Amino acid sequence: MAQDKKILTVQDISCVGQCSLTVAQPIISACGVETCILPSAVLSNHTGAGFHGFTFRDLTEDIPEICSQWEKEGIRFDAVYTGYLGSVAQIALVREIMDRLLLPGGLKIVDPAMADNGSLYQGFDQPFVQKMAELCGKADIILPNLTEACFMTGMEYTSDVQTEDYVRELLSRLAALGARKVILKGIFFRPDQLGNAVYDCASGELHYCFTERIPRSSHGTGDCFAAAFTGALMQGIDACEAAALAADFVVESILQTEDDPAHWYGVKFEKALPLLVRRLNRSAPKSAAAAAEERTRRRYVLHGGSFRDLEGFYREMDHLLTDGSVPTGHNLDALNDLLRGGFGRHAYGEPIELIWESFEESRETLGAEQLLRIVSIILNHEEEHDCALKIEF
Ligand code: PXL
User: Which of 39, 252, 328, 350 has the most crowded Cβ, counting Cβ within 10 A?
Assistant: First the structure.
C-alpha cells in the first residue's frame, strides 16, 4: 500500500478572517493529505484592512516543548509548510523544526506571508524581512507574492503590468537567496490576467500559468493558493500542474464570494473544496455504502476534444444527457437542469457521474473563467442535483 503523506504546517490561527491555519488545514485535508498543525499565535482576527483591531497571543514559548514531545514520540513529517510567522524568534524555531522533524528527503515549503499590495503587514519590519529571506534560502520551494519578492530582493514593486524581463530578474534574484524552486504569485503581463511563475532555480526552466483576472481584491487568497498548491504537490502532482490547480481553486473561491458584499474579510473557499476533493482523491471506496454509491451512479464521458467553443460544449452535453426529444437552452441555468435529469437518459434527481477527459484541452477551448463557472454548476449540490465529476487530464 502506498504510504500516505503527513505534513506539518506552521502559521497563526486567526480565529475569524479565513486565512492562515483556518484555511490551510481544511484545504490540505481536502487534498487527501494528513495535516498536522503548529500554531505560531492566536489572533481574534487577521490584521488586514477592515477590522478595527485584533488580539494577539504569541505562542513562541510553547513551540520548543511541543516539538520535543513529537521528537520523543518519533513523529516525523514528509513536509513542513510555513505561512505567517509572528516574529524573528519564530523564524529561527522553524529552521530548527525543519532540521529536527523532517523525514529524509522531506520538503521545506515556505510562504513568506508578510506583505501584499506593496506594503508589509502590520508589525513587520526590515529585520524580519531579512530573516525571512534567509529562511527562504533554506527552502525547497518558496511561494512569495510580488510584494514579498520585491522586499526580499530589493527590486522596485509595481502594481502595473510587468514586463517579462522584470519578472525574470526578480526570479533570478529570488533564486540567489538559495531556494530550489520559486512559485512567484500575482504576476501579469496583460491587465486582464493574473498568474504565477514556476521557476526551477537549478535548470532555469520557467513556466507561467495565468487565469482571467477577477476585478475584486480578496484577502487570504495567497494562503488558499499556497495550501492548495502544497496539498496537490504532496499528492504527487508536479509543481506546474499544482500551481494551475491552486489558481483554479482560488478563482473559484473568489467567484463564490463576489456576489456577497457582506463577506469582505476573506473568500468562501469552502464552496470550492469539491474541486480539490474530486481532482486529488481517487482512493477506492472501503465501505459497502461508498462502494454502492459509486456503482449506482450512471456515468457520462465528456471528451475535451469533442467541442471547439461554448456552443459546441452545450451541444455535446445535449448529445450525452438527452435523447434529443426536448430542446434545451444553451446556458448555465439550463445546464443545471440538464444535470438534474429527466431528459430521456437519467431520471430527475438520479445521482450521476461526469467523467471529463482531456480537461486541459477544454480550459484552452472555453477559457479558465468560463470553465470554472461550468465546473461550479456541475458540482453544485442543490436539491435533486447530484453530479460527481471526475477530471482526467
Ligand atoms: O493572509 C496572511 C495573514 C495571515 N495571518 C495574519 C494576517 C495575514 C494578513 O494580513 O494578518 C494574522
Answer: 252
Among candidates 186, 95, 185, 175, which has minimal Cα distance to 132? 95
Condensed to tens digits (0 to 9), the pLDDT of residues 156-170 reads 999 999 999 999 999
Share of the chain above pLDDT 90, in %: 77
pLDDT tier at 202, thresholds 50, 70, 90: very high
Q: What is the pTM for the complete model shown?
A: 0.81
Sign, CA dihedral 231-232-234-238, equals negative
Predicted pLDDT of residue 214: 87
Give me the sign of the Cα torsion angle 13, 39, 145, 246. negative
pLDDT tens for 35-52 read: 999 999 999 999 998 999
**Distance (Å) from CA 20 to ligand 1 centroid:** 7
Which of 80-89, 290-299, 355-364 shows the lowest mean pLDDT across its residues? 290-299
288 CB-contact burial (10 Å; exposed 0-12 / middle 13-18 / buried 19+): exposed
Tell which atom from ligand 1 comes closest to the C-alpha of 219: 1
Cell of 130: 531579512
Q: How confident is the model at residue 381 (pLDDT cuts 50, 70, 90)?
A: confident
The CB density around residue 377, as the number of other CB atoms within 10 Å, is 18
Smallest CA separation from ligand 1 atom 7, residue: 46
Atom of ligand 1 nearest to the CA of 43: 12
CA-CA distances (angstroms) from residue 319 to 52, 269, 343? 55, 33, 11
What's the 274 CA to ligand 1 centre distance in angstroms?
A: 25
Rounded Cα–Cα distance for residues 171 and 175 (Å): 6
Cα–Cα distance between 327 and 28 in angstroms, integer? 42
Atom 12 of ligand 1, residue of closest alpha carbon: 46
Q: Residue 44 Cα, ligand 1 centroid: separation in angstroms? A: 11
Pocket of ligand 1 (CB under 6 A): 12, 14, 19-20, 43, 46-48, 84, 113, 121, 220, 223
How far, in whole angstroms, is CA 367 from its chain's centroid? 19
